[in-house]
Amino acid sequence: SSGINAEWPLRPGIASLCLTAQITRCQEEDEIMDSDEEDEEELLDAEPLDDGSPLDDGEPIEHEPVVEEAEDFVIKPSPDAKVFYAFPKHADETMFPGGKVVKALIGFQNNGDSPFIIDNVEGGFRYPMDYNYVIQNFTSFRYGREVAPGVTQTFLYMFVPSEQLAGGSRTFSLVMSLNYRGEDGTLYTDSPFNETVSVHEVDEGFDTEIFFMYVLLAALFALLLFGAQYLFSSAFGGRKSSRKTIETGTSGGIDYDYIPKDHLTAKKAKATKRD
Q1: What does the alpha-carbon distance between residue 183 and residue 146 come to, in Å, rounded to a whole number?
Q2: In angstroms, rounded to a whole number, what is the distance separating the alpha carbons of residues 126 and 173?
């Protein structure tokens, strides 16, 4: 009985709490319903949007055309021209000397019906694995010469591979390109030579630079010897010339007629006394 009496006072408190929560939830539902009714009344009291006038759809939307990415502009050779090359002094076209002038002949043959204008020839070393990576650019030769239809002309092109590229097993892509244009201004380009080459060191048996250095040293040595000899001769020659010369006269052939006889007799007397 004591346990029942201890729990009994708690039951009214729990019931009151549940009732309070139920009342609060009912009040919130009533407020939501009242707000929905007010919104419906405002919509009914509002003026109609359609007043009988035609609908204005506005200006039509113009969709921008999809611009396709243009391909890279590539200059190609003309089908009416033929370009060829030759290295007159190099039988091996895969090796070129470093620091020496290399001469190449670029031929152009016009097989079309209109003339072509040869602008220039350019060349350079490029990295074999990446054509856009330039290792050495050569001087561009400008010509500005017109080649008539059915005519073949040859152009001289020269370049000097760098000595720093010589030696080792390194290889480079040697590219020589001839740029020309048609009568209508269309640009063309053709690369008659585009091969992998190497640069070797030049082993010269006679070095002119060293020879002239030796000649200069020999001339300086000769000049020093000449200067030393001049100083030596001037020093000792001056001492000899500064000595006084004593004249002793001649022993015979003297004319005594102009001397008075008194002096002669006195001189003889002195001489006899000394003896």
Answers
A1: 10
A2: 5
pLDDT band at 1 (very low <50, low <70, confident <90, very high): very low
Q: Which amino acid is at 68?
A: E
pLDDT digit string (tens) for 40-98?
565 555 555 455 555 455 455 555 665 555 556 789 999 999 999 999 999 999 999 99
Instruction: Determine the 3-state secondary structure of 27 from DSSP.
Output: helix
Name residue 27's amino acid: Q
The pTM of the full predicted model, rounded to 2 decimals, is 0.50
Cα–Cα distance measured from residue 125 to residue 133, given in angstroms and rounded to the nearest whole number:
9
140: left (phi over 0), alpha (psi -120 to 50) or beta: beta
Alpha-carbon distances, residue 7 vs 19, 100, 207 (angstroms): 20, 116, 124
Q: What is the DSSP annotation of 150-185?
A: T-EEEEEEEE---GGG-STT--EEEEEEEEEEETT-
Measured in residues, the chain has a length of 275
